[in-house]
Amino acid sequence: MAGQLVPLPEVERLSPACIRILGGNPGKFTLQGTNTYLLGTGSRRILIDTAEGGPSWTAAIKSTLQREEAQVETVLISHWHHDHVGGISNILQLCPDAKVYKNQPEEGQRDIADGQTFAAEGASLTAFHTPGHTDDHTTFVLAEEDAMFTADNVLGQGTTVFEDLAAYLASLERMRRLFKGRAYPGHGPVVSDGPARIEEYVRHRKEREDQVIRTLRSSKAAHGTARPHAHLDGWTALELVKVIYKDVPEELHIPACGGVLQILEKLEREGGVARVSDGERWVWKDRSSL
Q1: What is the spatial distance between Cα 38 and Cα 67, in angstroms, rounded to a whole number?
Q2: pLDDT category, 232, cuts 50, 70, 90?
Q3: Which of 182, 204, 226 is at the close of a domain?
Q4: 109, 87 Cβ separation under 8 angstroms
Q5: Catalytic residue check, 164
Q6: Residues 186 and 234 in one domain
Q7: What is the pLDDT of residues 62-93, one digit of tens each?
Q8: Do 227 and 221 contact (CB within 8 A), yes or no?
Q9: Domain Metallo-beta-lactamase: where (predicted)?
Q10: What is the residue range of 264's domain?
Q11: DSSP three-state, residue 12
């Protein structure tokens, strides 16, 4: 969830070996649009992600390849979401000999193993399986810049969503140690200090967890939602969201609810919370602190 978005050009050279091409699909979850990256300095290039394959992205990648006098030899997919894979068929029409790689590949694709390397003139990449946002999520370190393509685990603005909080936090810790330079995110502008942004993400997740715990331990009456001691009946995830995300537009409460549920499930595994019998409500187990 990001505030005012930084304007980004449709096509921009970010470094001698990296050109960002926006996906032409802006939105509240895609921000300025999906970032796709053309890597290398020679006639054979690597492309990270393919956006949704919309007409503006297809035209932009075609004109960029013509201008660069280059072809895509290797397509690396960071994860399965449509706004990252939708343009695979488009790029294969432009570059029929390109090979498509993805963790947990689909038919016609090749697997990406953790630690696998990919190279083009001017660009040497190492792939790392970093689940959290999705189970197949993969990031790539660019050796020439000591930079990382963080895909959707770390964005250029705001925070992200995830399928598995524990796996996500473990991936963030791993990612932070793998590079020292820029982060090239799946959405939003380049982050100049990638490891520092990852540390911010870890702190933010810890703050959200602390907010959930404090709210669970408080009475609903303290938040103007119910009579005193109604918390003994438990909190639903959406009730927690309405307190914790009270300054966030309501249209974003449902996606925020998914993150709160992930926190609750993590705390349940750790023994800190329990579900009420209906399975929809949660209580803090340490009643002595209430």
Answers
A1: 13
A2: low
A3: 204
A4: no
A5: no
A6: no
A7: 999 999 999 999 999 999 999 999 999 999 99
A8: yes
A9: 33-187
A10: 218-289
A11: strand
Helices and strands (DSSP H and E) totals, the chain: 7, 15
Query: What interhelical angle do 237-244 and 194-217 show, nearest 10?
Result: 120
Half-sphere exposure for 241 (CA within 13 Å, toward CB): 20
Q: Would the pLDDT of 184 be above 80?
A: yes
**Same domain membership, residue 262 and residue 160:** no
44-81 b/e with 16+ CB inside 10 Å = b?
bbbbbbbbbbbeebbebbeebbeebebebbbbbbbbeb
pLDDT number for residue 290: 37
Query: Cβ neighbours of residue 132 under 8 Å, at least 6 residues apart?
Result: 153, 162, 163, 164, 165, 167, 168, 169, 170, 171, 172
Same domain, 158 and 254: no
Last residue of a domain, one of 172, 204, 236: 204
What is the rounded distance in angstroms from the CA atom of residue 35 to the CA atom of residue 20? 6
196 shares a domain with 249? no
Catalytic residue among 83, 135, 210, 278: 83
pLDDT at 45 exceeding the cut of 70: yes
Same-domain check for residues 147 and 222:
no
**Nearest alpha carbon to residue 54 among 40, 36, 67:** 36
Across 14-18, average pLDDT = 98
Residues 56 and 158 in one domain: yes
Determine the pLDDT at residue 230.
45
